[in-house]
Design a protein that fits this description.
The protein has one domain: Alpha-Beta Complex (2-enoyl-CoA Hydratase, Chain A, domain 1), CATH 3.90.226. α2 packs parallel to α4 and α4 runs antiparallel to α11. It is globular and about 55 Å long. With 320 residues, it is an alpha/beta fold.
Length: 320
């Protein structure tokens, strides 16, 4: 695991520069053959996704994934396509009797940004075209991905969201579907949709209401306030606070400290889902409300959306 230690954010995943074959990382010499066989059993298509970097770490049975968007750090159709394939390949290739997987981690390679959320440029085009079906289809795909993640793909593993920068709109919503959130100090979270007359339609209402109650959820959704990692830690949404630049290390520490309790933690998460389920049908009905509201936006609202898009693009460019 030498190339993984101390800097997952610096490792180019999945492909060896010399011959374009998947990278396999050496582990304990005594278990070298077994480890190689495990890596050969990992679905190779995971290493060739367009906007997701994937690394399997054998000794802790963890799959690290980092978003690597080609443009503005957002959930474009290309990124969503990758996430659908990513989930399918994990469900097919990992679990009991297959490649062992105890932890699934998602982070981002965009400097200073986890994700800005929805594809605002696409939204503007679909709204101007009066294409409600297109808006709804986009939202359905988002919440289907979130709902599968929220039940850990029905695998006995823990899902971890690793936040090293800004998580806004749908980026924040996506994080709410993880079992554990690890955020660096200085990371920020927010739901800015209200500034252009809309609301977050891909999970915020359902997940926040269950996590922090209806009144606080409404305040977060409608206030356009920005929340720090420290604030969300006090609210119980963020589970682990990391020093700036130490997110990956904090994630490793959490994994090592929780390994002896892994089975109990997985079962506890399953119990939480039984006690407070978030049905896919509920998520889709909220998407329907969101799509209807989107078609009611004025030209002025769309101009505000466009300004926000440009501002986020400039922020991502300046941080790179």
């Amino acid at each position: 695991m030498d190339r993984l230690n101390g800097g997952l954010d610096k490792v180019e995943p999945g492909v060896d520069d010399a011959d374009d074959t998947p990278l396999f990382f050496a582990g304990d010499a005594k278990a070298g053959v077994e480890e190689s066989l495990r890596h050969l059993s990992v679905p190779q298509d995971l290493y060739t996704l367009n906007e997701l970097d994937v690394l399997y770490e054998d000794d802790i049975e963890a799959l690290w994934t980092f978003m690597r968007p080609s443009g503005r750090p957002s959930f474009t159709p290309t990124m969503l396509h990758d996430f659908v394939a990513w989930q399918r390949l994990i469900a097919e290739g990992f679990g009991p009797g297959k490649v062992p997987l105890k932890y699934l981690i998602l982070g981002s390679r965009s400097p200073g940004v986890f994700c800005f959320g929805g594809d605002l440029e696409l939204f503007q085009r679909l709204i101007r075209e009066r294409n409600r079906d297109g808006l709804a289809a986009y939202g359905y795909r988002c919440v289907e991905i979130l709902e599968r993640n929220a039940r850990a793909l029905d695998l006995p593993m823990l899902t971890i969201g690793l936040v090293e920068g800004s998580a806004l709109g749908g980026g924040f919503e996506a994080l709410l579907s993880f079992d554990v959130l690890i955020a660096e100090r200085g990371a920020t979270f927010g739901l800015p949709e209200v500034i252009f007359g809309l609301f977050p339609g891909m999970g915020a209402h359902a997940y926040l209401t269950r996590k922090i109650g209806a009144a606080m959820a409404e305040r977060m959704i409608l206030s356009n306030e920005s929340y720090s990692a420290e604030q969300l830690y006090e609210m119980g949404i963020v589970h682990v606070l990391a020093e700036k630049g130490e997110g990956v290390s904090a994630c490793r520490d959490y994994i090592h400290k929780s390994r002896r309790r892994h089975v109990g933690l997985v079962k506890a998460r399953q119990a939480m889902r039984l006690a407070s389920p978030v049905p896919l049908d509920e998520l889709k009905r909220i998407v329907d409300l969101w799509a209807d509201a989107a078609l009611g936006l004025s030209e002025q609202d769309l101009k505000v959306m466009s300004r926000l898009t440009r501002a986020q693009s400039r922020l991502a460019t300046s941080a790179a």
